[in-house]
Amino acid sequence: MNRDFFRRSRFWMLVAIAGLFIACQPFAPPTAPPGSSESSPSASVASPEPVAESVFLNGAGATFPAPLYQRWFAEYNRQHPNIQVNYQPVGSGVGIQQMVSGTVDFGASDIAMTDEQIASVSDGVVLLPMTAGSIAVVYNLPDIGSGLKLSRSVLPGIFSGQIDRWNAPPIAELNPDLALPDTPIALVHRSDGSGTTAAFTAHLSAISDAWRSQVGSGLSVQWPAGIGVKSNSGVSAQVQQASGTIGYVEYSYAHLLGLSTAALENRSGNYVEPTLETTAIALDSVELPDDLRAFVTDPDGPDAYPIATYSWVLAYRTYDDPIKAATLREVLQWALADGQAMSAELGYVPLSTDVTRRVADAIEQIGPPAS
């Protein structure tokens, strides 16, 4: 059995798992539940006591953190069988919409809600950066494998469709040691409202005036070229299956599937691969403000990977059901105290001790309405 066999096995395993959780139709909650170190903050966050009665929580949103959130919620249920958390990774845009409409107990997004969106929620919103990671540019060139470098001019050139062949001079000049094929570039992007897209296009806007003026950034943009695919797992599958493709996904998907990732030119002019270390350096270049909304569009530092982001859980500030409020607090505090230790294995950056402390304080804002 060769390496390709194991990669294919991992891929189809992830696709099978994703198929259990990704729903293309609007989310419909069940009507009833069934019958340290700087990067290891568990020493500074106490594990909460479990809720005694059975509770069912429903969440939906970003696909970026889905592998980690699914691991968290499954493990928490194993430890606390009376608590079940259902999370559907349907995209950041849908997560925000369902949070605003009140059809979920919590949402998730790779882009923080705006002041206008928050103001439209009568129960208030608490924004909680629960994990972090990078956006990897993934590609499928079987005869090349790894080693592709993309500059700050070539990256937006490819995703705008202006550079459309793999051996085009701008790419070939950056990669003289690679035998780039004389074939078209098959570009893949997200078709759904996506926080991954928001982070990726925010970086392209930061490094390219033309991209900023012609395409811009956001959960959804009018792509100049390529085909649209839903979800991080969908883009990963498309790139994995088709030679000559290129796309962007949360690093965890590239990590789990063994996809080739490009080294991107950062602000210092260095070509950097997405790793936990280079992503942590990027995140450290930005300090979280009091509202815990920070965007890392073009980080400083010679070793910083240029596309990094936090991913937020969106919780209501008040819940009519005090048991539900207490349960969500306890699940999220457990994710900070114990769940961060699961991050690196899945390709996510564990939150620093300082960020963890601030998020833990914010979680305590969740509760029942004031009497």
From TrEMBL:
Q: Which GO terms describe its cellular component?
A: ATP-binding cassette (ABC) transporter complex
What CDD domains does the record tag this protein with? PBP2_PstS
Where does this protein have coiled-coil stretches? none
GO molecular function, a single term: phosphate ion binding
Q: Which residues form the PBP domain?
A: 54-337
Query: GO:BP terms for this protein?
Result: phosphate ion transmembrane transport
Give the signal peptide range. Answer: 1-28
**UniProt cross-references to InterPro entries, sorted A to Z:** ABC_phos-bd_PstS, PBP_domain, Phosphate-bind_PstS
Q: Could you list this entry's UniProt keywords, alphabetically sorted.
A: Phosphate transport, Signal, Transport
Question: Which PROSITE patterns does the entry mention?
Answer: PROKAR_LIPOPROTEIN
Q: Which family does it belong to?
A: Belongs to the PstS family.
Q: Which PANTHER family match?
A: PHOSPHATE-BINDING PROTEIN PSTS
* Name of the protein in question: Phosphate-binding protein
